[in-house]
Structures are given as C-alpha cells and as structure tokens.
Amino acid sequence: MPRVARTEITVQAPLERVFDLLVDFSAYGSWNPFVVEVTGADRAAEGVRMRFKLPWRGGRFMHSDEQVTRVQPPAGGAALVAWRYDSPLARWGLLRSERVQTLRQLPNGDTAYATEEVFHGPASALVPVRWVQAGFEAQARAMRDHLSPP
Q: Which residue has the higher pLDDT, 50 or 150?
C-alpha cells in the first residue's frame, strides 16, 4: 500500500512569484527549512538531477538524490513542478516516489500551493512519512511567510 505525504497552503503572492521561488534551487537555503541546500542544479528544468540536503535528527543531515520530471510554467492560472526520487533504491525498484507541487491562481490574486509525494515499493515501509509530512508543512509555511507582504 502506498504511503503519502501532502499539504496545502494559500500564499499571498501572484502565481509567477511563487513559481519563481519554487524553481530557484539556488535560493532554497535562504528560506526553505526542509531542503536547506541543493547541489547539482541552480534551477528546476526537466531532466535535471540534483541532491537535496535535509535536516535530520540530532543536528545531522540526510541527502536525497532527485530528478526533475516535469516543469510547467505559469499558464492559464496554474503551474506545476515535479521530481522523483533517484537513488539506487529507486533504480532497483525498492522505493519509488514522485513529489508533485501544484500552483493555482485564486480569484483574489493569491496562490494555492499543494504538494504531494506518494511512496511505493517494498522499502516504502521504511520511509519516515511523518517526518516528510512535517517537512512539507514547514516548507509551505516558510514559502508563505517569505512571499507574503509584511
């Protein structure tokens, strides 16, 4: 049975500003408490491989290798960015996942942000989904706070 982490939030900023922040990997360290560093790519583009540095227990860090699968820039009031887990576990078929982040312009000019990652495979039982969920929520709040007017 797949395991899922997801969250949604409203950001008081235009869709284009939220999208620009989301695809600008070089800026993640300045605002993102869940992905504190990205190496291998400065910006999301389909096919790009990158490594995320994520805070872990006891002041340690873990790394996650990912590959961008889809980038749909703002058009028609919506945008999307997605990447998949790209480690040996994924290549061996033991753990597969894709994180999909969607943006939707609201009638008042704000942006609805949603993110979801579904984990599949025999090793999915080992994924700390509550920790991923908490990270998604922290990232969403930080995005909102970073972009919303004071």
A: 50
